[in-house]
Amino acid sequence: MLEVKHLRCIQAIAASSSLKSAAAKLFITDSALSHQLKDLEQRINSHLVLRKQQPLQLTQHGQQLLSLAQQVLPLIEQTEQQFSAAQQQQTRLNISVDCHACFQWLLPALQRFQQTWPEVNSHFCQDKDYNGLPLLQRGEADILLTSEVSPEEQIHFEPLFEYEMVLICPPQHRLSSQATVKASQLSQETIISYPVTPQRLDLYRYILQPSQVAVKQWKHADNPAMLLQMVAAGMGVAAMPYWAVEHYAQQQFVHLLSFEQALWRPMYAAFSKNAQSSTVLKDFVELILQQALSQLKGSRALSFKQK
């Protein structure tokens, strides 16, 4: 009966000029390789290598066995990698987030998760532009929280919830007497946003660009706290999730307005399709969903069927 070591043996011989170099590729001694080859030839009752040829050459039966090795070994290695990744998934949870303000509700969910799974090592891994998909594709992140669904064959997007995006302005602003705002009313405004391209901002993509509205100026804030402070100081207006600013609006720190056509944005948990059976991921996603729907005002359940 053929074994995996026999396939690796014939593959190494085919890629080497001598048995000595083939043995080095397999990290075994010359003698051990010779014994393996002899054992294999006895099992199939046929010579596999023309030993007197330099460099080594395979016989017809040797070529047939090499063809089998080239088909089978990559499948074995792929399966081993998947098993290894699944095992690693049980001991780590690297989280990437495409949302600057998400930590407000994510950290309580993560705290509950760590109480349930103390053996799992949790980390945040972020791209400087808050674009976590490449990290997920490279295996550096195990889960990505994002509002964007990409047509990725190996990535599953699990629907979580959706939330309303609102405009915030200072309490003394000219728009503060309104409950809703039109895109055209923002043409003379300074917009404060995170330091990413406008094409990645919900305000630009779904409000300004469809109405062909150009604003007066763009300013940047590195984090939600700075952004809120800048708006409260009268430096501009900004778009943020309702749940992130509702508390500050109640304290009259800022004034919030819905858009004339309410802007609801989805939130998905993205992860490798190979990890869909992971109990660790399932529990974490469930905790996120529970935290969001029970604690976040201006959020609601999201249904989505992925093709």
CATH class group of the largest domain: Alpha Beta
Query: Please, how many domains?
Result: 3
Mean pLDDT: 88
Question: Which quaternary structure do these chains form?
Answer: single chain
**Secondary-structure element series:** HHHEEHEHEHEEEEHEHEHEEHE
CATH topology descriptor of the largest domain: D-Maltodextrin-Binding Protein, domain 2
Please, what is the CATH homologous superfamily of the largest domain?
Periplasmic binding protein-like II
> Which structural class do the helices and strands define?
alpha/beta
Structural commentary:
By secondary structure, the chain is an alpha/beta fold. The strands form three sheets. Strands 3, 4, 5, 6, 7, 10, 11, 12 and 13 form a nine-stranded mixed sheet that branches. The mean pLDDT is 88. β1 and β2 form a beta hairpin. The relative contact order is 0.14.
Detail the topology: elements first, then pairings:
Layout: H1 4-14, H2 19-26, H3 30-44, E1 49-50, E2 57-58, H4 60-89, E3 92-97, H5 103-116, E4 121-124, H6 133-137, E5 143-146, E6 155-169, E7 180-181, E8 190-193, H7 202-208, E9 217-220, H8 224-232, E10 238-241, H9 242-250, E11 255-259, E12 263-272, H10 279-295, E13 299-301
Parallel strand pairs: 3-4, 3-5, 7-11, 8-9
Antiparallel strand pairs: 1-2, 5-12, 6-10, 6-11, 6-12, 6-13
What's a concise summary of this model?
By secondary structure, the protein is α/β, with parallel strands linked by helices. Helices cover 41% and strands 21% of the residues.
